[in-house]
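Hi all, long-time lurker, first post. I run a small reading group and we've been trying to get comfortable going from sequence to structure in the token notation. Rather than ask abstract questions, I figured I'd post a concrete chain and ask someone more experienced to write out its structure so we can walk through it together at our next meeting. Sequence below, copied exactly:
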Amino acid sequence: MNTRSDNGTQWLSLYLIAAKSFEVERHFRPEQIRRFREWRAEVVRQIEDGTPEYLRPARSDAILSLLFPAMASGLANGKGRVA
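-- Answer (accepted) --
Happy to help. Here is the structure in token form:
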């Protein structure tokens, strides 16, 4: 959540896909859930706006899908990828 560099922000969509795929919120306290959801909404807004530094290269999606099958559907939707 503290990543602010151009290099770091391009991977935020992967963090969010992993968090959803592995249901990490179930381990959070209510305040953490609130903060995480606010952060997620901001990252999603930046991705939907096409902010370049928030778009990840797709070159690793196929291998990540093989290594982490739980993330495959999230990776397949193309959201957050550079076209």
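A couple of things your group might point at:
The mean pLDDT is 91.
The chain is about 55% helix and 0% strand.
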